[in-house]
């Protein structure tokens, strides 16, 4: 598969603290890459570098390069709003807006300049279908999103991210706040979405990484220790640190 996004010698600093050190990693198009590693090793920081969400934190600094379709993400002429549309994000805790189900999705379209009402209605339906939520909510689009279950709220957040037609989807532990059935739905959804999107997922759940991803990257204290095909990483990793982590000896 062609390379959709790349990090080249990426380092990241919170003030003087180097949270990521010299990370070089490619993300193939229409593949799922899992980022794994113990708490605090920089997985979320790395994910947020990919769509420049860290720009919002004062005192932070990036070295090295990230590219999307070969174009630098940190270039001075980059339209960051458009970058975040192209590289969408879903967070650990479902965070729907305190608005109706319909408005949760329509909102992102409107801030991206879509005004046509029937276009918005079609897109809301299409996004909810893509997120495997349509059947459950089609009769209550004008009800509050906060009345949905946690798993439904997370699929709504995925629908919201998809509505603005991203190409890459970043998911930061998207199922960790959900029960096993809702988690399974999210995992099935990731499998379906892979056909249309490039997906990068942070997870603490080794079984989940093994189930959903094609490639796995193991991070440890701000460094990328090892990356490769998920089957290989989980059965015959090259590095001892990777093996210790996936077999539960630390982390
Ligand atoms: N806003 C911030 N300001 C300063 N330091 C931060 C900030 N956010 C994260 N860090 C530090 O950067 C390091 C990496 O944190 P990060 O949240 O990226 O790790 P993580 O691997 O995603 O952890 P977890 O799995 O627990 O979510 C940690 O040492 C953390 O304390």
UniProtKB/TrEMBL annotation:
<dbReference type="GO" id="GO:0005315">
    <property type="term" value="F:phosphate transmembrane transporter activity"/>
</dbReference>
<keyword id="KW-1003">Cell membrane</keyword>
<dbReference type="GO" id="GO:0016887">
    <property type="term" value="F:ATP hydrolysis activity"/>
</dbReference>
<keyword id="KW-0472">Membrane</keyword>
<dbReference type="InterPro" id="IPR017871">
    <property type="entry name" value="ABC_transporter-like_CS"/>
</dbReference>
<keyword id="KW-1278">Translocase</keyword>
<keyword id="KW-0592">Phosphate transport</keyword>
<feature type="domain" description="ABC transporter">
    <location>
        <begin position="5"/>
        <end position="246"/>
    </location>
</feature>
<dbReference type="InterPro" id="IPR005670">
    <property type="entry name" value="PstB-like"/>
</dbReference>
<dbReference type="GO" id="GO:0035435">
    <property type="term" value="P:phosphate ion transmembrane transport"/>
</dbReference>
<dbReference type="InterPro" id="IPR003593">
    <property type="entry name" value="AAA+_ATPase"/>
</dbReference>
<keyword id="KW-0813">Transport</keyword>
<keyword id="KW-0547">Nucleotide-binding</keyword>
<dbReference type="InterPro" id="IPR003439">
    <property type="entry name" value="ABC_transporter-like_ATP-bd"/>
</dbReference>
<protein>
    <submittedName>
        <fullName>Phosphate ABC transporter, ATPase subunit</fullName>
    </submittedName>
</protein>
<dbReference type="GO" id="GO:0005886">
    <property type="term" value="C:plasma membrane"/>
</dbReference>
<dbReference type="Pfam" id="PF00005">
    <property type="entry name" value="ABC_tran"/>
</dbReference>
<dbReference type="GO" id="GO:0005524">
    <property type="term" value="F:ATP binding"/>
</dbReference>
<comment type="function">
    <text>Part of the ABC transporter complex PstSACB involved in phosphate import. Responsible for energy coupling to the transport system.</text>
</comment>
<dbReference type="InterPro" id="IPR027417">
    <property type="entry name" value="P-loop_NTPase"/>
</dbReference>
<keyword id="KW-0067">ATP-binding</keyword>
């Amino acid at each position: 598969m062609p390379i959709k996004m790349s990090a080249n010698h990426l380092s990241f600093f919170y003030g003087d603290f180097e949270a990521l050190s010299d990370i070089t990693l490619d993300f193939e198009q229409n593949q799922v890459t899992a980022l794994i590693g113990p708490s605090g090793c920089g997985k979320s920081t790395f994910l947020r570098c990919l769509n420049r969400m860290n720009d919002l934190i004062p005192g932070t600094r990036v070295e090295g390069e990230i590219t999307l379709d070969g174009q630098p993400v940190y270039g001075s002429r980059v339209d960051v709003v458009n970058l975040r549309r192209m590289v969408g994000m879903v967070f650990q805790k479902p965070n729907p807006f305190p608005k109706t189900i319909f408005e949760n999705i329509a909102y992102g379209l409107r801030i991206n300049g879509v005004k046509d009402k029937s276009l918005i209605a079609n897109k809301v339906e299409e996004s909810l279908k893509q997120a495997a939520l349509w059947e459950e909510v089609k009769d209550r689009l004008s009800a509050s999103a906060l009345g949905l279950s946690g798993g439904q709220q997370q699929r709504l957040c995925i629908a919201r991210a998809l509505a603005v037609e991203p190409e890459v989807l970043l998911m930061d532990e998207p199922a960790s706040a959900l029960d096993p059935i809702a988690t399974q739905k999210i995992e099935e959804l990731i499998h379906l979405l892979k056909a249309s999107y490039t997906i990068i997922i942070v997870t603490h759940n080794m079984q989940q990484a093994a189930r959903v991803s094609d490639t796995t990257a193991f991070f440890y204290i701000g460094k990328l220790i090892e990356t490769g095909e998920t089957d290989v990483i989980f059965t015959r990793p090259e590095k001892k640190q990777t093996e210790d982590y996936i077999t539960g000896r630390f982390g």
